[in-house]
Write a structure and sequence with these properties.
Number of helices: 2
Number of strands: 8
CATH class of the domain at 76-208: Mainly Beta
Shape: globular
Strand content: 25-35%
CATH architecture of the domain at 76-208: Sandwich
Pfam families: Sod_Cu
Order of helices and strands: HHEEEEEEEE
Catalytic activity: 2 superoxide + 2 H(+) = H2O2 + O2
Function: Destroys radicals which are normally produced within the cells and which are toxic to biological systems.
GO molecular function: copper ion binding; superoxide dismutase activity
Keywords: Copper, Metal-binding, Oxidoreductase, Signal, Zinc
Structural class: alpha+beta
Distance between the termini: 127 Å
């Protein structure tokens, strides 16, 4: 009997032969795994309403449109009453006037230089507001006082309305050409456009154009 004095080297050689003959299984091919995509974010509802661009523009516009409502009180023993609403507009000030208790026909309306209606005949309001020293005139004419607002058409029942834009005027206190601190005067007769002030007769209504708060 032949004795194997060193069995371990023989076993190792046998293992190498088996491996060389393809006895060991080949490793499985690696399948690429795509990274997981993040889940889409769910929009969160806002807790408060946010105005869109259109609403913001409207809000900005509302905030920039300065408006002053002036009560018109009777003077010279008249029965006139009314209001004048002054609103800043492009290039000037829009004036919207409503009167009642007025004499039928056309009656003049002007902005006067002083915001003082204390006199019974409103002469405390001074002359027409004319910061640029223009001659008197009517709205459809050429040059005129900044305070020349034309005539109110009064119906038989004593009510009348009038709207006009005073180009170049503003409602900024202390600014050149500002209507703030002046007075609006309604006269008893029509402004005929003549010099120096339209021959419109007595002052039957007066209101102070107060400072914008």
């Amino acid at each position: 009997m032949i004795k194997l004095s060193h069995p371990l080297p023989l076993l190792a050689s046998f293992a190498l032969v088996v491996a060389a003959c393809g006895g060991a299984p080949e490793p499985a091919p690696q399948v690429p795994v795509e990274p997981a995509q993040p889940a889409p974010e769910t929009p969160v509802a806002p807790t408060g309403a946010t105005p869109g661009p259109e609403a913001s523009e409207q809000a900005d516009g509302a905030a920039s449109a300065v408006s002053v409502v002036v009560p018109i009180e009777a003077r010279s023993n008249s029965k006139l009453s009314g209001t004048a609403t002054f609103t800043e507009a492009e290039g000037g000030v829009k004036v919207a006037i409503q009167v009642s208790g007025a004499p039928p026909g056309k009656i003049a309306v002007h902005v006067h230089e002083k915001g003082d209606c204390s006199a019974p005949d409103a002469t405390s309001a001074g002359a027409h507001y004319n910061p640029e020293n223009h001659p008197h005139g009517l709205p459809n004419g050429g040059e005129r006082h900044l305070g020349d607002l034309g005539n109110i058409e009064v119906k038989a029942d004593g009510t009348g309305t009038h709207e006009i834009v005073a180009n170049g005027a503003n409602l900024k206190e202390g600014a050149p050409n500002s209507f703030i601190g002046r007075a609006i005067i309604v006269h008893e007769k029509q402004d005929d456009g003549s010099q120096p002030a339209g021959n419109a007769g007595g002052r039957i209504g007066c209101g102070v154009i107060a400072q914008v708060k």
